[in-house]
Write a structure and sequence with these properties.
149 residues; 5 strands; two-stranded antiparallel ribbon; alpha+beta
Length: 149
């Protein structure tokens, strides 16, 4: 067994600690159940699915008529920082004054953003366009009250 140093452990996020937030947010969009896996990339390879972004901490997929959310159970904090950095970069291409990424200032908000960004990939008229997905996701994060916290 590989033992992580104190610093590496301090930078790990145990996503199941945020299960209640994820379930409540996913429930707003009829996504159920949520399943946790140790390594999302390995899980995706086994299922023959491609991750659109390698730093993705979660992935939606269809099983029968249900939307299932697969979440990597432990992630490095830097993975969420990369998601926020990518949003900030994309957003700056269309608006270099506002930066909604700066409001994603907690693990809870960042995980909610990741979940909703993944869901945006299923929204008709939005899916497939990163800018539209980002815009839709930010609006939903705001509607759900995450920016009020």
């Amino acid at each position: 067994m590989i033992r992580l140093s104190y610093w590496e452990e301090a930078m790990m996020i145990y996503v199941q600690d945020y299960d209640e937030v994820l379930r409540k947010t996913a429930g707003e969009f009829f996504v159920s159940p949520i399943r946790y896996v140790k390594d999302l990339q390995s899980w995706s390879r086994q299922k023959g699915m491609d991750l659109s972004e390698p730093s993705q901490p979660m992935r939606l997929f269809t099983e029968g008529k249900n939307l299932i959310l697969i979440v990597q159970s432990e992630i490095q904090e830097s993975m969420l920082e990369d998601v926020v950095r990518a949003l900030s970069l994309r957003w700056s291409l269309k608006d270099n004054v506002a930066d909604p990424a700066s409001s994603l200032n907690s693990v809870k908000k960042r995980l909610a953003f990741c979940l909703l960004k993944e869901y945006a990939k299923t929204v008709k008229g939005v899916a497939g366009d990163d800018f539209l997905e980002d815009e839709w996701t930010i609006k939903e994060v705001e509607k759900l009250g995450f920016f009020l916290e």
